[in-house]
Design brief:
Blueprint lengths: L2 H12 L3 E3 L20 E3 L19 E3 L19 E3 L19 E3 L8
Parallel strand pairs: 1-2, 2-3, 3-4, 4-5
Length: about 120
């Protein structure tokens, strides 16, 4: 088993509300992550992630840490109604308007991210 597989397997068993898959040189989020509906905190800093689609149905997420990736499109997060904080520094995000209806989002950190409205 790889490190990622070990981390995911352990979380699947424990149902821990927090998952950290940072610094694993990932090029994409694992597809099975879409099944981790118990998560409230997810961190995947310092990878090469661009596609957030596997997160689209993780409506219990309150905190996402995804700094230092290559994310452009945040629209897959548009239905995460419980999202309170998004750490997205050093990405390529071009538009944050998909997040405008997330009324619980009180912290959007995108310093050093090129954001165009």
């Amino acid at each position: 088993m790889t490190t990622l597989q070990n981390i995911l397997a352990a979380n699947k068993i424990s149902k821990s509300k927090s998952l950290d898959i940072s610094n694993l040189q990932l090029n994409e989020l694992p597809k099975e992550l879409s099944e981790f509906t118990w998560l409230t905190r997810l961190y995947f800093h310092h990878n090469n992630i661009c596609n957030l689609t596997p997160l689209a149905n993780l409506t219990n997420l309150e905190i996402i840490g995804c700094s230092n990736n290559i994310i452009i499109d945040v629209s897959p997060l548009a239905k995460l109604v419980n999202l309170k904080t998004l750490f997205a520094q050093n990405n390529l995000i071009t538009d944050t308007t998909p997040l405008v209806w997330l009324i619980n989002l009180v912290g959007l950190f995108h310093i050093s991210t090129k954001v165009y409205y």
